[in-house]
Amino acid sequence: MFVAHLPAGYLLSRFIARGRPTQSGAIIATGIVCSVLPDFDLAYFYLVDGRRTAHHDYWTHTPLFWLAAAAALALALTLSGRRNQLILVSVGLANVLLHLLLDSVAADIRWFHPLSDLRVNLVHVQALYKPWYLNFLFHWTFMAELLIVVSAAVAATLDWRRWRGRVAALPAVK
Ligand SMILES: [Zn+2]
């Protein structure tokens, strides 16, 4: 998936943030960062690994790693009496898993690594064009990505208008 990770993360995070007005800003910010967090491994892929291993094969693209990291973080927050921040761990984990789910559409993700090397890839995109990314841009799955982008843009516009309406309704500070 190319362009839909962050918009999809925004849609998921604003849904989770509903009914939590005091934490909605932190929830949406955490969710947006975590919606693209696995792809931070591209820096390692290009700068260190020299593009030798597909970045979807790094541990940063394995769900069990993120489940373990979230469990450790949740335990640390609980033991330190900061249970009110557990929602941020939940929204972060949900967004990372959404990222891996969306990656599983057109790329192979090892959902059970290191227990199993089963690769989940819903749609096989054929190599018809060069450079390689044109195969994905001309594939129908990219239309699904654009649909997510447009939905998030509409939602963000509505949120922004609502936020501006609330700010305008606030009494002026003298
Ligand atoms: Zn990814």
Automatic annotation (TrEMBL):
GO terms for molecular function: hydrolase activity. It comes from the Bacteria. The keyword Electron transport does not apply. Keywords: Hydrolase, Membrane, Transmembrane, Transmembrane helix. The keyword Protease does not apply. The chain crosses the membrane at residues 24-46, 58-79, 86-112, 132-156. This is Metal-dependent hydrolase. It comes from Ensifer canadensis. The lineage of its organism: Bacteria, Pseudomonadati, Pseudomonadota, Alphaproteobacteria, Hyphomicrobiales.
